[in-house]
Amino acid sequence: SHALLQPVLAQMFTNHTLGIFHNLRSREASMQAFDVFTVLLQDVPDIFEDVECHGINGAHRELFTETTTASLTRVSFRRHHQVLYRRRLRPTKPSLLPGARPHRGTYFLRSGHDLLCLVNHGNKRGKARVFTYSLIDDGLFFSETSCACLKDCNSKHIVHANGNMSVRCAGTLRTCHSFDRGFVLVFDNDSGTYKPRRKALELMGAVLARNFPDMETLGLDVTEVQPQETMTWSGPNELTDKSIYAGQWKWQPVRENCR
Questions:
Q1: 28: Cβ–Cβ under 8 A, 6 or more apart, which residues?
Q2: pLDDT tens, 90-112?
Q3: How many CB atoms sit inside 10 A of residue 181's CB?
Q4: What angle do CA 98, 246, 51 make, to 5 degrees?
Q5: Which of 50, 58, 183, 240 sits 20 to 30 Å CA-CA off 111?
Q6: For residues 166 and 59, what is the distance between their CA atoms, to the nearest angstrom?
Q7: Where are the alpha helices (DSSP H) in 38-156?
Q8: Which residues make Cβ contacts (< 8 Å) with residue 88, sequence separation at least 6?
Q9: Is 172 within 8 Å of 132 (Cβ atoms)?
């Protein structure tokens, strides 16, 4: 297996004001901040080569034309990205301790376990969460998402992608738990904006394997049926009327000893 040659730099940004507004408009009563994450994954251009997912081929192609309106709209998404991701951070922290809630700042991730600790194994306030992500050459940008309108707006793929015309891959990710594999980072290509194809999904998996060879991962294609054996895994509620996110993947409820 590929050895992790050097730690992967990651950043966690928090926005307390957005967090309060998100929770006031949702079912949850909480004053916790809205967190966004950057993971500076290595070798993205080398692995993807010429494979890109262009917004002009997605569901909102009008945002990616050369018109003045489209250009100004993309500028607004870039500014939105900067508001979320360009805050002053504390000095680099040497490591992440299992069970300790991470705080905003810069971290060196030395393993896939560190990455899962950074997002608290996908759990927040006792619930398994779903994150939207965009992978660009600069890194992996992602945040928690939900069915609530305001949080959905702040977790758009085009916002994570800094208004880019294309991405390497985009979709959602979550941490699931399997009896035989332990914690598994499950990612998909569920992005209507950039419409990644299966090849991009496979290369996303290759990037994760290169950077975190110890981490269990699974890529799911939204155009295909979920593998039956994964439906026994525990994970976020994505299907019922009380779902965290209106997705299509079926998981079992998260048990207390898997959090």
A1: 125
A2: 555 555 655 556 678 889 999 99
A3: 13
A4: 75
A5: 50
A6: 13
A7: 44-48, 68-85, 112-118, 149-154
A8: none
A9: yes
